[in-house]
Amino acid sequence: MYGMVMKSIESYVLRNLGPTAWNVVAAENGLEFASLIATEGYPDEQTVGLVVSSARLFDLTPAEMLRKLGDYWIDYALASPMRELMTGNGRDPGEFITGLNALHVRTQLVFPQMRPPEFEAIPESEQSVRVLYWSPRAGLEPFVEGLLMGVARMFGVQGTVERLTSLGSEVTAEFRFCWAPAHG
Fold first, then answer.
1. Do 53 and 29 meet the contact criterion of CB atoms below 8 Å apart?
2. Helix, strand, coil percent values for the chain (each to nearest 5)
3. Residue 166: closest CA among 182, 142, 148
4. What span, in angstroms and rounded, lies between the C-alpha atoms of 152 and 75?
5. Which tens digit of pLDDT belongs to each residue from 162-172?
6. pTM for the full predicted model
7. Could you read off the pLDDT of 8-67 as tens digits, one per residue?
8. How many Å apart are CA 57 and CA 112, to the nearest integer?
9. Is the domain 83-181 a CATH 3.30.2290.10 member?
10. Are 179 and 159 spatial neighbours (Cβ–Cβ below 8 Å)?
C-alpha cells in the first residue's frame, strides 16, 4: 500500500487518540514513528496490521475502521500537495468518480510504484452513479465506501453509498453512489 495511505492512518490516530495511541499502533506493527514516508510503498500486510490495531483502539471492526479511514483520506489528500489534482478532477461527485482513473494516472507520474485500483462510473441520473471497482487487494471495499462519502463531503453534498455486490475476478465490487444538496 502506498505510504500516503499509511500516513493518513497515522494522522487519523494522532488526531483522534493522540501520540500514545499511535505509538501503540506503530509498535504493534514494527514501525518507528519517523519511519513512515508518504512516497514509499509498504507491504499490504503492514497496512492491514495498522487498520486492525487502530480498529481495536477505536473499538470498531476492521471494516468500520476502513470506512472511517476512507472518508478521512479525502480530507487528508485535500490538505496535501494532491489538493490541486483532487479539486481539478470534476465539478460534482459524478465527474470526480468518472475521472478517478485519470487522476490515478497523473498521481503515478509522481509516485511511479503506486498500484491504484480502477474505477468505472456508470451514470444512472444527474445525482447517481453505479461505481465498478477493481483491485488486486482484497477486502478494501469498506475503504471505497468511506472514500465515496468523503467525496460527497468534498463537494458539500449529502451522499449515500450502497454496496450492490461483491463480484468475482472481473469486478471486485459494485456500488451505487447517490448525492443530494446538503440540508442546512
1. yes
2. 50, 20, 30
3. 142
4. 11
5. 999 866 656 68
6. 0.89
7. 999 999 999 999 999 999 999 988 655 677 767 778 888 999 999 999 999 999 999 999
8. 33
9. no
10. yes
